[in-house]
Design goal:
The protein has no helices and ten strands. Helix content is 0%, strand content 42%.
């Protein structure tokens, strides 16, 4: 449930971790929370992506709270719903200089809602999500 997500941890610059799961039975979902630190560093680069997603059966949403507030995707447009890969980083404003960006989510923490794509059969296949900064 959103109110009690599985904590993945806090990732400072250069760290990564993975989470592996499966969604059985039909309608099962997983909620994870992760924090990214270091938004004032030019190396700040939060990323969440499936590194194993058999048959592209799984998707995730990234939200800032249990009300379902999605993150906006600046350059690409759209938002962080029903995706397989998400990332952000500081932006260059002049040669050799990058401007800090606000921490993602709520003070650097986001919630990741993982689910099986509608209409696909339930299998024993597992997914792996990699979180990095």
């Amino acid at each position: 449930m959103c109110a009690g997500p599985t904590p993945v941890g806090a990732l400072s610059i250069g760290l990564s971790t993975t989470y592996t799961g499966n969604l059985v039975p039909l309608g099962a979902e997983q909620w994870l929370s992760v924090s990214f630190t270091g938004n004032t560093s030019t190396a700040y680069h939060p990323r969440i992506r499936f590194t194993s997603n058999p048959g592209a059966a799984f998707r995730f949403d990234i939200v800032t709270n249990c009300a379902g507030t999605l993150l906006a995707c600046g350059v690409e447009g759209g938002n962080s719903m029903a995706i397989q890969d998400w990332e952000t980083s500081t932006t260059a404003v002049a040669p050799g200089y990058r401007t800090p960006i606000p921490p993602v989510g709520s003070g650097g923490t986001v919630l990741v809602h993982v689910y099986r794509r509608a209409g696909l059969p339930v299998t024993c296949d597992s997914y792996t999500i990699t979180f990095s900064n």
